[in-house]
Amino acid sequence: MNNDSEIILTRQGFDALEKELNEILTVKRPEVVDRIRQARELGDLSENFDYDDAKHSQAILESRLQEIRAILAHAVVAEPKNEDGSICIGSKVVVKDTEDDYEDEYLIVGSAESNALEGKISYESPMGAALMGRKQGETVEIETPGGIATYEIISVE
Questions:
Q1: Which of 46, 55, 58, 115 is the most exposed, fewest CB within 10 Å of its CB?
Q2: Domains held by the chain: number
Q3: pLDDT (0 to 100) of residue 49
Q4: Parallel, antiparallel, or unpaired for β 7-9 and 75-77?
């Protein structure tokens, strides 16, 4: 079903990358080119901090541009298919740690858009894999560095 060249994204993740690509091409890249032009006008480039900084910014920007293009070229948008209420890519899930009653909310995404600080976890991560296909009210066990953690699925959207 999923070959090595496919990169699974949610619709939101795909749209966000397209938006970032457009911003790089229409706003950020022209700004950097202008900064380089202005720095060149200052003369000697060997000790020109503005020129070096602008070229460094350009290299970072071009690298990100290539990365986004590669992701989009291999992207497959996962459309949520959870008519039965089960967790799938694109599901927003609230879980509760049964030991300390602490609740967390996660969005299940593909690995290319996972970001733990934003609550986006990959379906391939230990937590994501344990949640896939489960439903509200079920309990899952996750192996963590500190031992087995048990979570109750509070809600699925």
A1: 46
A2: 2
A3: 84
A4: parallel
SS3 at position 43 = coil
Shared-domain flag, residues 27 and 53: yes
Query: How does the average pLDDT of the chain come out, rounded?
Result: 92
What is the distance between the alpha carbons of residues 56 and 3, in angstroms, rounded to a whole number? 35
Say if 86 falls within a structural domain.
no
Neighbours of 111 (CB within 10 A): 14
Q: Residue 1: what pLDDT?
A: 40
Same domain flag for 99 and 68: no
DSSP output for 79-145: ----TTS---TT-EEEEEETTT--EEEEEEE-GGG-BGGGTEEETTSHHHHHHTT--TT-EEEEEET
Residues 6+ apart with CB under 8 A from 111: 7, 8, 122, 123, 124
Q: What is the rounded average pLDDT of the residues 51-77?
A: 95
Is the CB of residue 117 less than 8 Å from the CB of residue 126? no
Domain that holds residue 150: 92-156
**Contact between 58 and 32 (Cβ < 8 Å):** yes
CATH number at residue 110: 3.10.50.30
| Residue 88 contacts residue 80 (beta carbons within 8 Å) | yes
